[in-house]
Amino acid sequence: MSSLLTAVIIPASIPSPSQGVWHLGPLPLRAYAICILLGIFAGYWLGRKRWVARGGSAEVLADVIMWAVPFGLVGARIYHVITDAELYFGEGKNPVDALKIWHGGLGIWGAVAFGALGAWIACRRHKVPFLAVADAMAPGIALAQVIGRFGNYFNQELFGKPTDAWWGLEIDPAHRPDGFQDFGTFHPTFLYEALWSLGVIALVILVDRRYKLGHGRAFALYVAGYCAGRAWIENLRIDTVNEFAGLRLNVWTSIILFVLAVAYFVIATRLRPGQEDITTPAPSDKPSDDAATDGDLPADEAKTDTGAAPASAAESSSEEAPGVDRPRDAAGDAPAAADGDTEADVKVDSADRPRD
Fold first, then answer.
1. Could you give the CA distance from residue 81 to residue 311 in angstroms, rounded to a whole number?
2. Which of 7, 59, 166, 220 is the most buried (most CB within 10 A)?
């Protein structure tokens, strides 16, 4: 009885999805693409919460993401095609397959590098610190990876070595690589990486909450944390890739980036402690031209050429603002204001001219 109960509670293995594509008429809905898109939206949601909490503009971040996402997708595919060129070029290969992103094949480091380039361009346009955006988005990038990895699950790809553990992943014979046809279950490396990335999210958020990471340190912590897990997870995989000195290319990439990220974190902590100021007004918060003509500019903008703020109507009725020369008639007397206009009105109107 107890063995039967154990079998019910703990499955013998993790089944793979029976399909990864559904059709709505002629339109194919691919699970891989859906996971990528859901990951992007989830990552933006988390990054937006962190950015706004630091005083940043949600509208500005949305524009940064609009630049970063297409750059990142292109970069992810370029990285994959370059590092696995033998899959697309050479005898018997069709180079057009390199464009078929829906079949899978996105390199995370290409996505991060090119996405950072797109974000940097947008940050320059909005005059916001790029490293502050990277810090705010760091856990969001990891969250996007968590969800995106399930696309590999639906595609039955990038799994690990054979295993008899109860959490082994069932792989259909058509997806098993040469030499592994007689094995039925494999290490679910997609799940290992997703769980590890969840830990990286918690690490970055908790450390940032405690020490107020700035100037790129939260992003460096994300890179170091992710690379530490990716190195051992990558070694479990059995898909064919390029190797150097007995290690897979992505293992070398993870080691190098881990060292660089840790070095940057330490140096930035010593040279640039604390967080940078990212408070920026949202585009909708800027005064309109109509507000300027109505005399509703903020006090620090509605100043005379001498730098003095215009006096209120009550104060201006009895004395003139110092340092303001008013035209006088031949007798040296100040001209009378027009009917219905007070002296304060004349001064406010002169101060409220639209500015460049």
1. 67
2. 220
**Model pLDDT for residues 285-307, shown as the tens digit of each residue:** 444 444 444 444 444 444 444 44
pTM of the model: 0.74
Record the tokens describing residue 17, joined without a space.
């999805």
What residue segments make up the domains of the chain, in order of their start?
12-271, 291-356
**Contact between 54 and 136 (Cβ < 8 Å):** yes
- What percent of the chain is modeled with pLDDT above 90? 56
Q: Residue 270 and residue 268: Cα distance in Å, rounded? A: 5
Listed in order, strand segments (DSSP E) in the chain are: 21-24, 27-30, 169-170, 185-186, 243-244, 247-248
Name the token pair of 262: 């840790």
Cα–chain-centroid distance for residue 123? 12
139, 201 Cβ separation under 8 angstroms: yes
Q: What separation, in Å, do the N-terminal and C-terminal C-alpha atoms of the chain show?
A: 83
Has 124 been labeled as part of a binding site? Answer: no
Nearest 10 degrees: Cα torsion 67, 72, 78, 83: 160
Residue carrying structure tokens 């309109």: 288
Block residue for tokens 């094949």:
105
pLDDT digits (tens, 9 = 90+) for 84-140: 887 788 787 888 888 877 776 788 899 999 999 999 999 999 999 999 999 999 999
**Which phi and psi (to 5°) does residue 243 adopt?**
-125, 150
Q: Match 């209120």 to its residue by tokens.
A: 312
The tokens describing 341, both together, are 């206009």
Q: Which residue has the higher pLDDT, 343 or 167?
A: 167
Q: Rounded to 5 degrees, what are φ and ψ at 233?
A: -70, -40
Alpha-helical (H) ranges within 212-308 are: 217-234, 249-271, 289-293
Beta strands, E only, 125-242:
169-170, 185-186
